[in-house]
Amino acid sequence: MDLTKQAPAGTQSTPEQRTLQRSWYWYDWACSAFVTATMTVLFGPYVTSLANKAACPTRPTDEECFRNLSVLGFSIPPGSLVPYTLTASTIISAFVLLFVGALADRSPRPTRLLGFFTLIGGIAATAMFFLEGDNWQLAIVLVIVANTSLGAALIIYSALMIRITPPDDRDRVSTVGWAMGYLGGGLMLAGALAFLLMHEKLGVSLSMTVRIIFAAGGIWWLLFGIIPVIALRNVPSAADASGKQPMFSGSFKQLKETFKELRGYPETMKFLVAYLFFNDGIQTVIAAAALYGALELKFDENQLFMTILLVQFVAFFGAMLFGRMARTQGSQKLILLSLFLWTGVVCVAFFIPERAFGLWLVLSVGIGIVMGGSQSLSRSLFSHLVPKGRESEFFSLYQAMERGTSWFGTFVFGLVYQLFHSYRLSIVALVIFFVVGGLLLRAVDVRKGISDVGNHVPQVI
User: Fold this and answer.
1) Residue 222: which of 26, 25, 24 has the closest Cα?
2) Is 4 helix (H, G, I), strand (E, B) or coil?
């Protein structure tokens, strides 16, 4: 199979490309176990409990501790540790991922880098098994390594989609990939929930149960991540087509040129700024949902798992629905619709009473419907605004703000809690991200932006 031959611009995928796409989908399936079971559900409440034990060792069973931790000389309440950790993780990732993007476009076989970052991230995720007692410091290190590795892997993963998918087919491929991720993460969550429900009968402590689930998420990532690494090993990088070299010494120079050239693509730059805002809101809601449910609404671990499990399976159908609607309505219009719905979700969450689990589940259905569409269509829309041969570099800018790595949103969430000790005020403060992001997205002339970078303009966008 000659993988260097692309289908003509604007056509649907060839049979050879569809075969590659089926392998590509597996990476969303692979990493979603870590994103959902570990980061979305358990990491926040569990690490907060470790921080409470460290801050209040004489009252380890308290739901909340008002004594502060000392983190690099800063006084931080235990309840703000996880949001601030995610903030620090993203700031560190931003510098690393930008270089990874320039490096990946020069690598003759980008799937080798995909395999490398999968290995590092999977090991870090698996090592979360060793989080126990009051060892919150190890949690900070592992989540930074895992999140940075995930971000780096997803840069390469997203760039590979462009190389195996013609423009008019990207909404479909992107949404199917996200849907696969929700399905895989949902199955992992179902197994984890069953383990949580049975842990006492099995003679396993709650802490050990959570740690085993952490390890399972990392192992899942490693095992299923091998599939696209092997199947896509012959997909060429931009270096094969353009002859760019050398791989390492030219990466820093190219990174500088990327920022310089970005100013020449104003619509691409406007989309990235819009995405910075609305994606920060989305990612903060996802990352903080378990924390909000556990500490503000007083739901237990089993209820939180049931919630995220429901969201995962609803999001599968939501992603497929938005992908189908995008064929006639266009991705930009549907992303704007999703941001309006996200605003409603956050406002409703503010008013949910404690322990009102039924209302919480109804809200979760709404989250699931819009979550898959807003994320998958953002990825496919941005893919049209990327210059040919510079996919990884530009997706490194995109990925710095992607899944679970929002920084300003988590900072605002943690800061509002630190000031007012209320997660309700923290969650409603996120409305500003959806409003500002939506207004900025409306100002993007997508068709002009696609033409500016020299790409084919799809019939519906």
Assistant:
1) 26
2) coil
